[in-house]
Each structure stands twice: as structure tokens, then as C-alpha cells.
Amino acid sequence: MRTSSAPRVARPGRAVVSSAVALSAAVALLATGCSSSGSTASGNPSAANAKITLTVGDFGDFGYKEAGLFAAYMAAHPNITIKEDTTTAEADYWTALQTHLSAGGLDDIQALEVGRISLATSDALSGAFEDLSKAPGVNKDDYLPWKWAQATTASGKTIGLGTDVGPMAVCYRQDLFKAAGLPSDPAAVSALWAGDWSKFVQVGQQFQAKAPKGTYFMDSATGLFNGVVSSSTKQYYSGGKLDYKNSASVKQAWTLAMQADAAGESQGLKEFDPPWQAAFAKSTFATTICPSWQQANIQKFSGDANTGKWNVAQAPAAGNWGGSFLAVPSSGTHKQAAEDLVAWLTAPAQQAKVFQAVGNIPSNMRAYDLPGVTDFKNPFIGPNAPTGQIFSTAAKLIQPAEIGPHAGDLQNDFSNGILLVEQNHKSATEAWNTTVQQIDSSIQ
Amino acid sequence: MATSERRQAWRSRLYRWDTKGSPYVYIAPFFLVFAAFGLFPLLYTGWLSLHEVSLYNVNQSTWVGFKNFTDLFSGAPSHFFWNALGNTVTLGVLSTVPQLLMALGLAHLLNYKMRGSAFFRTALLAPYATSVAAATLVFALIFSPEGGMANWVLGLFGAAPVHWEAGRWTSQIAISVIVTWRWTGYNALIYLAAMQAVPGDLYEAAALDGASRWKQFLHVTIPALRPTILFTVVISTIGATQLFGEPFLFGGQSGHQGGAANQYETLGVLMYDQGFRNSMLGRASAIAWIMFGLLVLLGAANALIARRLRRSQ
Is pLDDT above 60 for A280? Predict the structure, then answer.
């Protein structure tokens, strides 16, 4: 659904409080070895009329409630009650999920974020989940091939069905672009940096030369870094091994981020933190890397006063940032019913409804052909921009990349490394060395 | 005759059992609960600290001996361990010392006869009753680089705005302010209770001898409070060693590692980061045991000082 380090719609207060709650819950679980089951209903799961409760564990905004999907499913299946068990921040969700994997207490359905999928499909964990490739109504060819491959183990077991993907675009302020003498039409802006992230940094220099006082080209260089890495086929891993030091995309991303910072193009904000949120309303930066889920953040934090000032253009290269899966833990008591629900939730019609409700781009390709997806326009961001087309085009252009079990952690470590330069005024070399040190110490 | 004698003997035996045994029965619940929730986790953590074990698969562990400890002292994570230990000490000093001094002063003031003293005494406890999360959120706003109150006050004196969270000392000062704010009143009440046990004639005699209130504070109050002060020092030191919530919440997205540059990462935060973010339960358990060892050392030092104090009196 979103990046592993950031809430899709960041809600600082609740995120912080919920992390404290999740933490104490996790500690309590560890201390007591508690193993209460998440599902309370009893009875024979195969009996069609037995009353059962299905629990769905997810994080951020999956949009099922907003799109009315749970209500619709319960209406069609009177014997089934669905309970959603949501955590705001994915990091807290994952911490709790790991604890439950050891101590028990998993939900009937558990969402997995793309940064964790490689670990979940590894030998150590894949045994804990059911094979969904043969679930009724599931057709492999409907899903984006790389998305399907991500959730499939080496032995061909598919442990999760894709919910959404995070194709990247660049969201930009057309008024600030105009003020800096740049084109402001989506097609013309896309052409400015088409095909090359270094052109994006060059446009930043042009922007900065004539920009209104107190405005920056980008919110933070970490967004740029993630954009560059996410749009490459070789990221942090190679052949199953951590290999970021030899990765061309990591090198290029780091260099470009340092260039952008040195040229004063970045406001140096920590993404998703309160100052970053506040800066949207203050209109202090002109672009932000924009995976589809970011639209909700932009609208929420910019406020009504900025309606129609944002627009959306294609990213220099197609890439994926975020996106999730739904998995069925083998420990569940209603596995068959859970599989049916997962298959239904990830079917084209349902994914299209989620897209319309909260903007998550479907991972099911057949959903792109449905009305209201490709021809979608966002009333807040570039009312006349072909938003749905930009995102679904990007989704189809994404090349499969090896993700690796700790990709989410690495993304987080590098974001911090760039912050060391932007906020703590370390040199680029010093920041790189600290980042390497952090990675060496955190991955066993 | 025989039966009544036997009954007598039975009764006295019951009585003996009762006087000898019942204290153990009365305290048993505590020790049972302690064994389940205190001792067992402690031993289990110790066992985990000798293994390489993931949070998501606790049943699969590999024996590694003392590798987790040697790693912390001189291996890949050693930089972060020593950094966190240093931060724990500096944060501890920055927060405990001003906190206890202020508590002593406040208690002294509240010890005088004054109007509405009950109100002030209750008000002192309000910060302590506030949750860490709520307090930290408010202070994070106060120390925000964008329009925070701390920078506004600095601006009144013509100082440039400070990026509180990014600097090593500025961030630690900000966190110390939160800790101090929360615990000063709590300690003040402990001091106040001890002060009220000081006999009033001592003050009267001192006043007759012409000692000022400051002199009375120095030469009557402080000596009388010595054991209490020692107690609060120990309690605050234990609290400082385990400091977690304030730095963790203060850092927002990078709170789990105590800031982007680990500039305010304490041992508690490092333990959380290693155990729950990096999923390395073994190493986190090793940190827990090191913290436990530190506290045992601190406790021993305290016992020594307390004994010296008692002898010197």
C-alpha cells in the first residue's frame, strides 16, 4: 500500500500513540507468551451456513471501508462477519505481525507491504502462509506479472495476492513553475525530464535560479533518492545477496541527491513528519515524488486553499514505490472462507472501487479497463490532468526488480543518511559511511 | 481427658504453623507473580541473548555463545552501542541533576505556611500524571523548527532559530526538558513529605540563633533529607538508564533510532530498534542484560554510599 517507512496518509498524533500502544502490546505478548487466537468463532468452517467471523489485519488506508466492500460482502454472505484490525503505521503493524507469527494471535487475513514480501516468501516464513494461486476465481494472468512474482516463493507457492501498486509520478505546483518561468502543462512538464532523473535535477537548477524567494524545487532529497532507486531493475540486492555498494542505481541516486542538496534545490524536510506536512500548506516547495498513494497526502496537507494549484506529470522513469498484498496465515481456523474473501477483494471490480475511493492503483490489470480508472481525473490535483492514465501507464511500464528481504530497512537507512546531510550538515562522505555502518549493524 | 489433651496439642501445633507459615502464604502471591512476570522473562532474555534469533521465528534459534555481547562491545554494532551508552549517561545527567535540584527548591518553598498549598501540591503532580505520549507531542511542537515556541522565545532575544532535533546537544536538552518537566513535581512531593518529618524545634532553634532561611535550608533541611535524597537519586538514575518513551516519540519517523544521526539514541531505544525494527531478538536481549548489569552496579554503589552515610552520622 505504501512505503515501509511512511504512513500513506501520515497522521502524526495517532501514529506516535499507536506505536506506543503496539509496543506495549508486543512487550506484553512477549512476557506472557500469550497465544490467544485472533478468531473467536467456532464451528465447522466447511459448513456453509455456520456463523463465522473473519478478521482482516491491515495498516494505513486500504480503502475497503471507504469503498463499502466489507459491508457489501457481508450482505452477500449473511453468515460471515468481517472485522478490520487496522494499524496506522506500517512499521508498527509489521512489528506486531512478527510477534504474532511467533506467539500466535494472527488474523485470518494479514496484509503484507512490498518491503516485507521478500522476507515473507523466504524459506523462514513462507510456511506460515497458504498458497493462494489455486484459490477459487484467481487467475494469475490478470495480475501485473512482476507483482505476482514478488509474492511467489522459489518453489512456486504464491503467498499473497496483490492489492495495489505504487507507480510513481511527479506532483508539481503549476503556479510556482510558472513563476519560475517553466512550463506548467503536464505534457510539457513530463517532457522536461523525460527518460532521465539527472534532467530532473537540472530542471531544479533552472527553477531555483528564478524561483520565488523562500521556495525550493523539491521537498526532500530522500524522495528523489527513492524515486531513482525504485525505477531501476537493479536496486539493493543482486542474486539473493545484499549488493547495494555495487548497485548503479543506488550510486546514481545518492549522487543526484547530493547534487540536488548542494544546489539548494531541496528544502531538506523529513518526509511524513509534521514540518513536512505543514510545508504543503505554506507552499514552500514545488515538487514531490508522487506514488499514487501520495495524492491523498497532498490533498490533505495542502488544504482547500491550494485546490487546483497542484498538477501531476510523468516521472523521468517508471518505477514502483509501495503497494501491498493480502495473505492467509496457515494457522487460521477459517482458511477457506479467508481465501474466498481475499480472491474477491483483489478482483478487478473491487480494486477499481478502492481506486475510486482512496486512489490506490490496482495491481489487477483487468481493472485498468474498467470505467473510472484510466479515465480518472483528480478534482484536487490538476483537475484536467490525465491522472488515471499517467498512473496506469506507469504501472504497466514498471520492470520487475529483485527486492530482497531487507529492502524496506535499507530504504529507511538511506533516507536517514540523506537527512544527515540535509539536516545535520554532515559531509556526503561522512553520511555515506554512517549509512553503511548502520546497514552493516542492522542486517545479520 | 486424653482427647482434650490431644486437642490442645493439635491446637498449639496449628497455632505454631499459623504464626510460622502464614507470613509466607501472605507474601506468596507477590513472589509467584514475580516469578512469572519478572524472573522468567529475565532468565528467558538471558537465554535469548546467547542465541541468534529472529522476532518472527523465536522457536528457531542458533546458539552463538557470547557473540551478541562481543558484537556490541567491538563488532559491527559497537559504534551504536557506545554511542547509546554515552547518550544515556549525558541524557541522564542533563535530566536528573536539574530535576532533583528544582524539586528540592520547590519542596522547600512549599514547606512554608502559605495560602492554597494543597492546590500547589496537587498541581505539582499534574505533569507526572500526564502520559509520556501526550507530553512529548506537546514538547515536539514547542521545539519544532517551523514556528515552534522555543525558537520564538529565542527570537525575542535576537537569537537565530535552532534546529532542535538535529543537533546532538540541542536534541538532548529538549528531551531533558520533557523528562524534567514530568518528574520534578513527583520528586518534590517526596522531598516535601520528608521535610515535614523534620522536627520544627530544629528550625526554631536555628532561627533563634539568627540563621537565615537559606542557612536553615543548608544546615537543617539538607542533612535531615540525606537518605531521601539518596533514594530519589537512585530512583531517577534507574529511570534515566531505562529512558525510552521520550526520545522514541520525540524523533517522529526516525525516533526508533534516536534521530537520523543517532544523536539521542539511548540504550532503551537501541534495544527496541535492534529487537523490533531489525528483528534481532538475541542482540536486543544482550542489551537488556547489559542494562540490567549496569543497574545492579548502580545499586551496589548506592548501598555502599548509604552505609558510609549511616556510619558517618
Answer: yes
In Å, what is the CA distance from A424 to each residue of A189, A431, B83, B164? 33, 9, 16, 11
Per-chain mean pLDDT for chain B: 91
The grid coordinates of residue A161 equal 495476492
Element (DSSP H or E) covering residue A324: strand A320-327
Alpha helices in A231-324 (DSSP H): 248-262, 274-282, 294-302
CB contact under 8 Å between B280 and A278, yes or no, is no
Q: What is the pLDDT of residue A444?
A: 67
A400: its cell numbers: 520487475
Q: Which helix (H) or strand (E) holds B293?
A: helix B281-312
Average pLDDT over residues B267-290: 94
- Report whether pLDDT(A23) > 90: no
Distance in angstroms (rounded) separating the CA atoms of residues A386 and A185: 11
CB contact under 8 A, A272 and B272: no
Strands A52-59 and A80-87 come out as parallel
Closest-CA distance of chain B to residue A16, Å: 6
Q: How far apart are CA B65 and CA B62, in angstroms?
A: 9
Residue in B with minimal Cα distance to A272: B253
Q: What is the ipTM of this complex?
A: 0.74
Set of cell numbers at residue A98: 512478527
CA atoms of A227 and A31, how far apart (whole Å):
41
Burial of A255 (0-12, 13-18, 19+ CB in 10 A): middle
Dig out the grid coordinates for A220 from the structure: 526532500
Beta strands in A328-406 (DSSP E): 361-362
What whole-number distance in Å separates Cα of residue A362 and Cα of residue A369? Answer: 11
Whether A62 and A1 have beta carbons less than 8 Å apart is answered as yes
* Strand (E) or helix (H) holding B95: helix B78-111
Integer distance in angstroms from the first to the last C-alpha of chain A? 27
Note which residues in 206-265 of chain A have CB less than 8 A from chain B.
none
A54 with A340: CB under 8 angstroms? no
**pLDDT of residue B148 exceeding 90:** no
Query: Per-residue pLDDT tens for A34-92?
Result: 333 333 344 444 455 689 999 999 998 898 998 999 999 999 999 999 999 998 888 88
- C-alpha cell, A58: 491491515
Query: DSSP states of A125-192 as a string?
Result: HHTTB---TTSTT--GGGB-HHHHHHTB-TTS-B-EEEEEEEEEEEEEEHHHHHHTT---SHHHHHHH
How do the residues of chain A divide into helix, strand and coil, expressed in percent and rounded to 5? 45, 15, 35
3-class DSSP state of B310: helix
User: Is residue B248 over pLDDT 90?
Assistant: yes
**Nearest C-alpha of chain B: how many angstroms from A437?**
7
Residue A89's alpha-carbon distances to A5, A32, B181, B252, in angstroms, are: 8, 25, 28, 11
CB A105 within 8 A of CB A25: no
The closest CB to that of A416, out of B79, B260, B278, belongs to B260
- C-beta neighbour count of A109 within 10 angstroms: 26
Find where cell 506468596 sits.
B28
DSSP single-letter state for residue A233: S
H-helix or E-strand containing B83? helix B78-111
Contact between A270 and B138 under an 8 Å Cβ cutoff? The reply is: no
Largest CA distance in chain A: 70
